[in-house]
Amino acid sequence: YLQHLTTLSGGDKIKHLSFAVVDFDKKDPATGHCYNNSICNYTMTEMKQEKKEHLVIAMNLGDHASGGFHWVAIYVFLGKPRPFMYYFDSAKSSKTPPESVEALHTRWQQELNDNSFLLQTNKKQQQFGNNNCGVYVLYVLTLMASPLNEPLGMPILPPSQGQSDTDPVLHPTFQSQQEKMTKLDTMNLPDETVQYYRSVFFS
Questions:
Q1: pLDDT tens, residue by residue, 113-130
Q2: In 3D, which of 183, 181, 159 has the Cα closest to residue 170?
Q3: What is the CB neighbour count within 10 angstroms for residue 13?
Q4: Rounded-to-integer distance, Cα 147 and Cα 58, Å
Q5: DSSP 188
């Protein structure tokens, strides 16, 4: 679905890198390459040259040797008024992002030569069940990469009984990317709610 994002409204401004494992930057002894070269070698210079404003990455907190166990979202914004990097963990499984993510942020911050390029994280735990982390990741990355006046390209919450899915309340216009992150920390998006989007993202 993340690749599909690039075909939607404003999709030409979106860069999608392949799914990552938490140790994406470690070297495979057999090849000498990173376990995920597309992320390990990607630069902000390249992103600017491609005229991209949004970078979306789905990462599993399992390493290359494990079967994986929990998905998180990594998002980079290079537009105005200021660029930033965002790490979203629906279960808030740790207080800080993994070391590999922090190291990636530091590398990109140094490359941009911009101390205002901050690594921000969600403050609120939304997920309490076991099966919806991938849905949360797709929801968050779609919300962050979609136009300010077309968040998600669909209702940001499921319509309640008797409510039309075209109700303006379900289709807010955001003023900034920061406002979207604030919304993710103030809205209630429990497992039973996000389940509404599973059929959209995994169809």
A1: 999 999 999 999 999 988
A2: 159
A3: 16
A4: 20
A5: -
pLDDT digits (tens, 9 = 90+) for 122-173: 999 999 988 899 999 999 999 999 999 988 888 999 998 889 989 999 999 9
Distances 151 to 66, 98, 126, 155 between C-alpha atoms, Å: 34, 28, 19, 8
Stated pTM of the model: 0.94
CB atoms inside a 10 Å sphere around CB 107: 14
Distant-in-sequence, close-in-space partners of 17: CB < 8 Å, separation ≥ 6: 38, 39, 42, 55, 56, 57
Nearest 5°: the CA angle 36, 96, 145 is 60
Are 41 and 27 in contact, with CB atoms under 8 Å apart?
Answer: no
β-pair type (118-121, 84-88): parallel
pLDDT in tens, 79-90: 999 999 999 999
Q: Compute the residue count for the chain.
A: 203
- What are the phi and psi torsion angles at 47 (to 5°)? -65, -40
Q: Can you tell me the distance from the alpha carbon of 85 to that of 104, in angstroms, rounded to the nearest whole number?
A: 10
